[in-house]
Amino acid sequence: MPAGTPTGISITARQYVPESPHKTPAPAEHPQGNLQQALAAQQAVCRQHPDNADAWFVLAGINARLGRIKDVEHCCRQILALQAENTAARYNLGVALQQQGKAEPAIACYRELLEKQPDHAPAHANLGLLYHENKQPAEAEAHARRSVLLDPDKVAAHNTLGLVCLDQERYPEALACFRKAIRLDPGYVQGHYNTGLALLRSDQPE
Question: Where are the alpha helices (DSSP H) in the chain?
C-alpha cells in the first residue's frame, strides 16, 4: 500500500517560549530524560494560569515530544478558546486530529485555517493527504500542488502528489514526484518505498 504521513506538529517549546521571564523554562532547555519532570512542572503552570496561551503552547510542545497527541489536541483547544485567531494552534490541532485518525474534524480544521491564511503550505500538504486517503483525487491533487507551489522543498507534498498520480496510473508523474521527494531528503523511506511501488506497477526499469 502506498505510504504517506502528514506534515508534523509544528509545536516545539523552543518556538513558543513566552517572552516573560517568570514563565517555566521551555522543554528544549531540559535534558531529554527530564521531559516527564518538565511535563509535571508545566501542567502545574497551566493549572495556575489557565488563561495564559503561552503556557499552553509550552505544554503542547512537551506533550508532542512525548507522543501524547490527545493531550496536544487538548492544549490546542485551550489556546483557541483564548485566541480564536491563532493560526499556529489551529494548524497543530489539525495535525493532532489527523494523527489520531479523525479525518473529518482535521479537514474542517485545516479548511478553517486556510480561510484565514490561504498560503499555509503545510495545511495544504496535509489536506492533500487527507483527501487522498478519502478517495477524493481532485481535491487531493489541488492541495498537494498548491503546497508544492508555495514551498517547493516540502517533501511530504511531493510524496502526496505522487500518490495521487499513482492511483490514477500516471506513472511517469508519480515517479517524478517520488524522486523529487528523495532528492530533497535522501533518507525519506516512504519516497523510496513508493518509488519501488510505482516502478512495479508501471513495469518500468529503475
Answer: 35-48, 53-65, 69-82, 87-99, 103-116, 121-133, 137-150, 155-167, 171-184, 189-202
| Residue 28 dihedral angles phi and psi, to the nearest 5° | -60, -20
CA distance 110 to 85: 13
pTM score of the predicted model = 0.81
Long-range pairs, 32-39, Cβ under 8 A, ≥24: 35/62, 35/65, 35/66, 36/66, 38/62, 39/63, 39/66
* Cα–Cα distance measured from residue 91 to residue 110, given in angstroms and rounded to the nearest whole number: 6
pLDDT at 199: 94
